[in-house]
């Protein structure tokens, strides 16, 4: 397992790392050792001036983590963003969403959840993913990878979701992220990067799981559920 110091060496560009050991859990080999420039992050909080400091911190966090997320995914042949615009909106259904190279943030959500900076990492991951339109790209995996980056890289000590027989790997978000973390740990440290790269090149299919683990996707899920639901001694 890589230490934060070794991760820093591999990144080659030295963004300031978060305090503590946020990258020690599941900090496997990075996808690309090339240096990428940190995009310029502009934050528009004109809709909520009281959240200016929150927005400033979010912008700094994204500038810090963009090179890290870039190196955690299959980005060898991709082109990094040069600028990211974050816009706060008074009315929107989702807490935050990414589109067109920018991120839109719900003012009421931030006011009610001032500690939820992790959602910015999730949305920024979508900008790094930047998958081209393809019928072969499953939405559950897109969201699962973004939550994997958030909950297993940025917030690795957060509580894990309870997995039951009613869950499916297509549940997306934290359920899929938990499944990916299990497979990455047990079978293939480069699995997430391989899946991400396949979706970037419109070449994803479920057989990629079998190629990395030797087992079919449904069998892997059954194994994961059995492991999570067995009585703990």
Secondary structure elements and pairings:
Elements: H1 4-11, E1 40-44, H2 52-72, E2 83-89, E3 96-99, E4 102-106, H3 107-112, H4 118-129, H5 139-154, H6 173-186, H7 191-200, H8 207-213, H9 217-229
Helix pairs in contact: 2-4, 4-5, 5-6
Largest sheet: 4 strands, mixed
Order of helices and strands: HEHEEEHHHHHHH
What is the count of DSSP helices, taking H or I runs of 4+ residues?
Answer: 9
What structural class should be given to the helix and strand makeup?
Answer: alpha/beta
Radius of gyration: 18 Å
User: What's the number of extended β-strand segments?
Assistant: 4
Write out the strand line-up for the largest beta sheet, numbering strands in chain order: 1-2-4-3
Percent of residues in helical segments?
40-55%
Point out poorly predicted stretches: 1-29
The overall average pLDDT, rounded, is 86
Distance between the termini: 27 Å
Task: Note the beta-strand portion.
Answer: 5-15%
Shape: globular
């Amino acid at each position: 397992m890589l230490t934060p110091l070794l991760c820093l060496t591999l990144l080659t560009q030295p963004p300031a790392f978060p305090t503590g050991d946020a990258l020690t859990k599941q900090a496997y080999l990075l996808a690309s050792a090339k240096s990428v420039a940190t995009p310029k992050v502009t934050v528009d909080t004109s809709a909520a001036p009281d959240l200016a400091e929150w927005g400033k911190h979010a912008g700094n966090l994204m500038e810090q983590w963009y090179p890290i997320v870039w190196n955690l995914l299959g980005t060898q042949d991709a082109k990094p963003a040069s600028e990211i615009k974050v816009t706060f909106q008074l009315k929107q259904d989702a807490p935050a969403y990414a589109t067109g190279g920018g991120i839109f943030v719900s003012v009421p959500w931030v006011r009610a959840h001032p500690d939820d900076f992790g959602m910015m990492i999730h949305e920024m991951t979508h900008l790094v993913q930047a998958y081209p339109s393809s019928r072969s790209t499953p939405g559950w995996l897109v969201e699962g990878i973004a939550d994997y980056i958030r909950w297993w890289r940025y917030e690795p000590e957060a509580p894990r979701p309870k997995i039951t027989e009613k869950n499916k790997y297509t549940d997306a978000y934290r359920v899929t992220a938990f499944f990916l973390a299990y497979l990455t740990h047990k079978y293939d440290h480069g699995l997430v990067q391989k899946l991400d790269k396949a979706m970037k090149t419109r070449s994803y299919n479920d057989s990629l799981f079998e190629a990395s683990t030797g087992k079919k996707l449904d069998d892997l899920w059954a194994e994961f559920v059995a492991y999570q639901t067995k009585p703990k001694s």
